[in-house]
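Protein fold
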Amino acid sequence: MSKFGALLFVCSLAGAQLLSGAVSVRLNAQPGSTIEVGQTLEVTATATDSAASATRFFYQFTIRPSNTGQWAVMQDYYSTNTFPWTPTDHEGTYDIGVTAWSEATGSIGQSYLSVTVNPRINRHTPAVISSTNNPLVALYSAAPCPAGLQMRVSFKSAHTSAIYTPYKPCDGLTMNFYLGGMLASTTYTAQHFLSNGAAGPVLTHTTGSIPSDVPLPSRSPLAGPEAPTSTSYPFLLNSTIGGTNFATDLYGNVVWYRTPSENVPFAGGYLVRLLLGGTLLTFDNDPSHPGGAQFLREFDLAGNIIRTTNWTVLNSAVNALRSRQGRSQVRLNFLSHDAIRLPNGYTAVLATDEQVKKLNTGTQDVLGDMVLVLDTNWQVRWAWDAFDYLDVNRTALHVVCKPTGGGCPAEFFNTQPDGKVYTQALDWTHGNSLDYDSRDGSIVVSMRHQCWVIKINYANGKGDGHVIWRLGSGGNFALAPGYPSSDWFSGQHNAEFHSNGILTLFDNNALGSPAIAHGQAWSLNTSTMVATPIENIDLGVVSPIVGTAQLLANGNYVWQAGAVPPSQSQSFEYTPSGTLVYHEQVDTWSYRAFRISDLYTPTP
């Protein structure tokens, strides 16, 4: 059995009684089997195979409430034998399980340990605020509240407006909230409120200073903020590539950050999304594989890992699904560019499939896109592959990738007829963003090298994957009368629909001469198949790669040029009439930059 096939076999056992074999596993937990809410437990697994002393092991870590319920996969099969777990919701007793699979023999072994998580306060203390590993993030803990009610926390300083955490339901256990979005070395007051109007005591907390070794680029507002800048979106969240993720106020003052190595084994990737409730999705790197982006992870605001999956186990699961569908096998090269949380709690993620194809120009190694939909346990439930639905001979931007990184994988896997690994590949589609269209449950993908935005028939997991339409030059839509063909986008990023039906995107204008970036918004008539560019603003900068587009609730647009030569990124806010009301420059390239109201609420 191949490694991927064996891993799939092991994956099918998750949540069930595992088989015994020649493998034995021991678990060690530091600091011990009893911790507090918000404290990190480092679990290490040590496995041996009596039939193969030099084998390599793959480990899966799972959690459940003690002796009850299904096992939840928290860190899926990989060679990593450590698992950091930080419980932040409630106290209780939990089982942490591990399954180890031996590559040499295919045997598996299982072990588990019981952990007691104690509350940070006793039931007679109304509330307490604790520091975390991040000096700008605090943990607010409150006594249990009556079932049927909800609780949230408000916090503010003498010079900032109040920020509110999301409500959480009361369930008879202590209530715990991360407070994020605070300035360094500043005193804040915090107070919890129940949904019936009852309030807790007013507590104070002084944030720490940002350590001098945290690499933060310089920041400078170039225009504004001024009316009618939206004060409902007072923060800017920056995702640098391989550097520190950070959020600032509109004057450039840092209110949150996460360094790539903070509490993270195998980091160095980039942040892709802020999720509702205050968690973040990232792609992280494994240093043993130079290509990067092997891990999809979800983090909390303090920088603790919540859940992890990886390219190896996803590749195995996708091939099992495709085998049942009678489709050919894929070779996942790396996780790519974007992941989003769907309304039902599932997670959609982009990945790159590396295939050898016979093209009009001859046989080549080709990189295409996959869309994977993972359930709430991060197991594959639906998959789509561009090679099944699009013409592999069609490109708008003909880009050949070599193993140099920078949007291309740093290694290839397919071999030529002489047995040597390919040294370059056609970067055929280069998808760079995902969006969910709630009107029909479809998924929208921005395909940079096709210069298309395509809509896929997902139908909330029941779709057959056919391409509903293609937006862009040579696609299914005609430009509205009076608009020149030069209004079409090229090399675009971050295409998303909004509640009013408007589609926004960042136009890198890769085919323009000169290639000046544009902020665009489109109205699409799917009855007449006519596309109208209702905004097409010349941003006055060149950004050959990356970029962000948003439509704020007040009607203003935000576009971010993420790679302005030589080494800047710039964010712009415009009114619908085209008036610039905010402009900031950051002295580093940034994968994305989102305007947000707080660190708990993503902005479309």
